[in-house]
Amino acid sequence: MDYVGAGTVELLLSSNGDFYFLEMNTRLQVEHPVTEMITGVDLVQKQLEIASGLPLGISQDSVSISGHSIEARIYAEDAKIGFLPAIGKLALWKPPSGPGIRVDSGVKEGDEVTVNFDPMLAKLIVHAPSRMAAIRRLDLALSSFIALGVTTNIGFLRNALTHPAFTSGSITTDFLDNTPISEFISEKPDPSVLVTIASAAKRLGTGKSSSIANSSNSDDHSGHPHDPFRTLSRRFP
Predict the structure, then answer these.
(1) Measured distance CA(94)–CA(162) in Å, rounded
(2) CATH entry 3.30.470.20 includes domain 68-230
(3) All structural domains of the chain with their residue ranges
(4) What is the pTM of this model?
(5) Using one digit for the tens of pLDDT, what is the confidence trace for 44-102?
(6) Which positions are annotated as active-site residues?
């Protein structure tokens, strides 16, 4: 084929434990940080080195796997209505940080999420010694991920991550199709989100309408003339 470069090979794992080749992409994919976290190999650097005519510099025997890594894609979308994209302004954007936590993002606070681009806001990747430890670390990171101003899938991700089928490792490719969406949607607002909104209102309050309209677990009230999220002021308790 005369192909030279760093690519991505995808395989599917069957219920009997066999791997089956799916496809080969001549590029790195959105999940490449997982491989980087468990191997310590900078795949982007390797890609650039190969493109520059340099040798790969590593052999398969020199690659070892350490621990477990999981990636979650943070999207501006509404899980309640079929994961349709959501638009708005990122009024407050505070990604999590800490040991074993990595955030790859191309947005910042104040950016507009429009219909012109893919609604993915960030990739949140965690690394831990075991799968269960990685699940707990990712859930903690998601719980402290603040993204206000647009509807996001953060609440959905937390519920999917802690679903018994996921934690047990028994999920298949039709996990979401065969599970009622109600099991992934929390009807009650996350207390941490309410605290964040209150803090943001005090910090940003000017007596004028606030741009904080939505949160990851809130409904879209942005079109309602009496929406309290549009009229937060310094009098907010």
Answers:
(1) 23
(2) yes
(3) 8-62, 68-230
(4) 0.77
(5) 999 999 989 998 889 999 999 999 999 999 999 999 999 999 999 999 999 999 999 99
(6) 27
